[in-house]
Write a structure and sequence with these properties.
- The chain is built from 16 helices and five strands.
- The protein starts with a helix and ends with a helix.
- The protein is an alpha/beta fold.
- The protein is elongated, with a radius of gyration of 25 Å.
- The longest helix is centred in the last third of the chain and has 22 residues.
- It folds into two domains: about 170 residues, Rossmann fold (3-Layer(aba) Sandwich), CATH 3.40.50.300; about 120 residues, Zinc Finger, Delta Prime, domain 3 (Up-down Bundle).
- It is about 60% helix and about 10% strand.
- The chain binds zinc ion (ZN).
- Zinc ion binds next to helix 4.
Length: about 325
Amino acid sequence: MKTWQQLSQYQPRALKVFQNTIQKDRLAHAYLFEGKRGTGKKEAALLLARSYFCEQLVDGFQPCEQCKNCKRIQSGNHPDLHVIEPDGLSIKKWQIQSLQEEFSKTGVESNRKLYIISDCDKMTTNAANSLLKFLEEPTKGTMAILITEQIQLILSTILSRCQIISFQPLAPAIIKEALMENGVPIHLASLVSHLTNNIEEAHQLSEDEWFAEARLIVIKLYELLIHQPQKGLLFIHSQWMPFFDDKEKLESGLDLLLYLYKDLISIQASLDDDVVYHDLMTMLKQQALQLSQRAALNHVVSIMEAKKRLHANVHPQLLMEQLVLTLQEG
Ligand SMILES: [Zn+2]
């Protein structure tokens, strides 16, 4: 359960909009929250729900989190809040119809009612048409929040009846901070925050043993290439390929390697704050001095090329051998 302050860090613009509208008591009757997975849409919807039903708003917009209504929403059983999720693969017509029936009665405890439809792009055509009628004839005190990751799949007739709120991908600094608040060490938090802008995925990655080991193997290859480049190929055969043994894993390996070389460029440009491999700062600083800027840039380019070739289905081992030979050139 996220507080207003926490969500404001993720989505400052969206939350600012709601702060103003709640304070002025001008909430629309239908919202569509759109944006990628892990951007806080569902949490924001539940936060808004608590603000909508709260009996003693703080500063005129934040839920108190203490009153009966706030507590019931926190525990998922407020009689006037309905959350609809796909039944199997889709949201079916009967789900929307039973919602309509429910909403034709007055609120159990107040004259307010709110429904949230998660993954609303998964509505069947019949369900979407039922919802459309519902949206066209809003009853007083009724609010809808539709949530989607794929706004392009939503009927334009539905879009035109909703106020659309876009949820932005999270910046690396925000993800890093959130991970560290959860006890993830800075060296992992910093790296993970650059690999995904999805907070859930970031949490999973930072707890993933495979990921921690991948990081070590990448650092080992990097160190070999600096200190004993002639051993690079052997390492690729004996450790790298067996570990990164499919396309997806190999791509992660290449990303991890890419950030090491990007760090050299950051250091050369005196942008130490942008360095991803914090714990290797001393070593990286030394190497940034020894390597020309052009060489560092060339390395970054060749790793990006290797990623492209991976997508073009070049044989992974061949691709890695060629990459290592290029990186050895220093
Ligand atoms: Zn409250």
